[in-house]
What we know:
Immunoglobulin-like, four-stranded antiparallel β-sheet, 27 strands
Amino acid sequence: xxxxxxxxxxxxxxxxxxxxGCSKSPEEIKAAQAKVxxxxxxxxxxxxxxxxxxxxxxxxxxxGEAAADSAAVKGNEEGAAEQTLTRLPPGKxxxxxxxxxxxxLRTEATVTxxxxxxxxxxxxxxxxxxxxxxxxxxVKQGKSVLGKTPLVIPQLPVxxxxxxxxxxSWPPLTHTVSIAENTEAAATxxxxxxxxxxxxxxxxxxxxxxxxxxxxxxxxxxxISPGPKQLxxxxxxxxPLEVSxxxxxxxxxxxxPVLGTAFPVLDPAELLRAVWIADDSxxxxxxxxxxxxxxxxxNDVVKNLHRERLYNRxxxxxxxxxxxxxxxxxxxxxxxxxxxxxxxxxxxLVAQVEPGTPSPQPDQKDAKDKxxxxxxxxxxxxxxxxxxxxxxxxxxxxxxxxxLPEAMP
Length: 409
């Protein structure tokens, strides 16, 4: 408050202090000052119908008084429905009431020395009964949180009122509603969403979405915000599988990824090039221990494969493979793929699945008139055997194998 604009107040204070002199105690001087202040200034009570109202009063120049910048006197910074502005020099004031999300209200008041004036500023309002689909959205008006749907908002400013609706980690949705004075409006707002069903082969995978893990497939995300999603499926003994999917508003999207497709593809021709040793009796074994111990082949044949390199870099890892099928015995679980040829040698792959596992491809009749059946499997590469004479085909063996539902490229 700028009390220097009040000569009467200053003169009164000077007289009191002069009369008091040094004979008065600090408490007596303070009481004398308060008495003078009460007699030479006024108070202004500001009332409103909003609990978070902040108020301020700015003194207007009197007739014949030079215009001067007058600092506004502010009330409770946190806001209140009633607040008193004190130590106001006499005169006419412009009073402003502010409440977040509402238009400011203004009126004028006259303050008289030694008296209390009163003004009432009423924010016109209506109410709103609000719900959302899905329910449970957080409702905000500006920075103020009003609650979660369903709810009744008892006071909103008259006219078009914008509210922010926030649901979980979804993008906020702005909703504008028309409010009439002393009337309750009603609205149900649909938040854009869809449904996502996540299965997996095999089932039981953990799904990571937006850095949160969900257990376990099959899982149903209902509701879920529309738009592109990046999922990671995790299951013991399988590498993490990244899956991209786009959720469409108002629709259901289903995915059923095959976890085995996360394993690297085995290219037998590439393997042979990496471990091949040209015909040379001095280098056939690679290193002295390349044909013994863990490097020893099951059939004890070592011709052109560097056994140590083969074991350390290729064997014991899980791969996937696809090729034309030669035969499958469901009773024993033995899968044999047709021979193929690289620039170095002919090769074939055999895989051992669990006995009784049905083939993902139906039986073909009159096979001579139809294209070869292509199957895909994944399994652990446990052996690469060079042929004994007179055979000329290198055999690659998968153990603990399983079929992939669809042949991969």
